[in-house]
Amino acid sequence: MIQSEVSGVMFTVDPITQDKDKLVIEAIYGLGDYIVQGVVTPDHYEVSKAKKEILTKNIAKQTIMETRGGKEVIESKVPAKKQELQKISDKHILHLAEIGKKIHAHYFFPQDIEWALEGGKIYITQARPITTLGGAQAQNIEGTEKINREVILKGAPAAPGMVSGPVRMVPDVKLLGRVKKGDIMVTDMTTPDFVPAMRRAAGIITNRGGLTSHAAIVSRELGVPCIVGTGTATKVLKDDMVVTLNGSTGEIYKGGLPKSSNIIIPNIKPDKIIPNIKTATKIYVNLAEPERAVEIAKNHVDGVGLLRAEFMMGNIGVHPKKMIADGKSEVYINKLASDLAVFCKAFGNRPIIYRSSDFKTNEYRHLKGGELYEPEESNPMLGFRGAFRYIKNPDVFDLELAAIKKVRNKMGYKNLNLMIPFVRTPAEMLEVKKMVTTAGLIRSGTFKLYMMCEIPSNVILLDDFLDIGIDGISIGSNDLTMMIMGTDRDNEEVAPEFDERNPAVIWALEKTIKTCIKRGVACGICGQSPSEYPDLVEKLVAWGITSISVNPDVIDRTRQIVANCESKLIKYGKNK
Question: So which residues are the catalytic ones?
Fold first, then answer.
């Protein structure tokens, strides 16, 4: 709605060094879409909140911008005389900083803010908590991470840490398979398609982008050191060249670090967080990668509410039916069991809720041999997936059950439980329950069987599902919202309509939770929404939800919100 002459982002603490006094502003010409995509490299300004003065200004040349053209957006050239100028005046920088301080004070947490400038007037278009601040004490890393090496390239620090490895050039998304574990991925810019390779990479370097580009945000969430906006990384660096990148300073050095060196990732506690506070509502964490289990288990968290199967199965890399056909069923079972055991050991007596595989056909086809076994579907989201797949292809589900049984019975980890995804009908749930029981996994005090609630039929027929005999449900708010709203959040044409706070979705959440309370079974939620919307968390707690499972970066913040809400319930006589 604003024809932005200049737009950008603002962090009310430095998201890299996590300096509480430093406020960071980035700016580009035109609409803000290009700063988020990483299409252009923004100006970078740093302001001292205490001194009310500009500390740093890095001006980036900008040749293209996105503007509004009728009912569409168009790409246009930035006039030559403006390309190398500072995007906004010092006066506007300081004015923005004052606005940022007020928003931070209002919400009590460090903020990630989007803004726009039109006709000399500043508009704030969005403010949300910074989601990549961790739980340890802040460190001053400016001096500790500098090393005596030749700096061959410099960019904008985007995700902290220092790491070295061989360069792996990725000029095209089709070549993501070239990136192996421990490589330094170098590309022009990243998109969501790059995420599998980003998970494998030891470090990431891009030509374009700023602190809010896709590469920067995802790298910080993955804990992978990243440098963006180098301008020439794909020209200066070559395949197999060993480099060291310092994600805290933006410097890239020639050569590697000693093998004993560790990645350094600083963290700070968000404002107003009380450590180790107790809540009646369980706070669980969503996890997928075994490599992060030990690190995340150190947090004040009650267990794993959603352990996704897909990443572990994806790391095996071969379609399970091909493994079966090749006589390698035991190899598959042992690998999956080994990964599951990592989580169980790391979390001790705390429960692990493993969600069995919910690969869609298009995702399964990406695995080696997948094209031999998977149909091509026009709409995989509504296709051959979840419980229906287990019933039609019991041999693959049996591999997962065998892995769970091995972890529990042979390895001795009794904290592993099972959750079934995408169950369309009570009859499907009954059939799957029979399969689980036949495999020797009997519901007991140490083994719970849960079901995902992510289809409107799960809400409407919830009593019928519970009659089958399950220990609880976990609301998958992502799929449930898409199904209720008829909106694919991954389709950019309709994604703006996706909203977990829509009244229809809120009605479904409330009905589900209250039905479970009435029936005396556990009811949790493990979708994205609790990680993003504190106001929704308050509603969930008030309705009586028994657990909330969130992303690792918001564990402490969510527990604090839950504690505050529970205190209000006690105060007004609604003690859970």
Answer: 214, 526
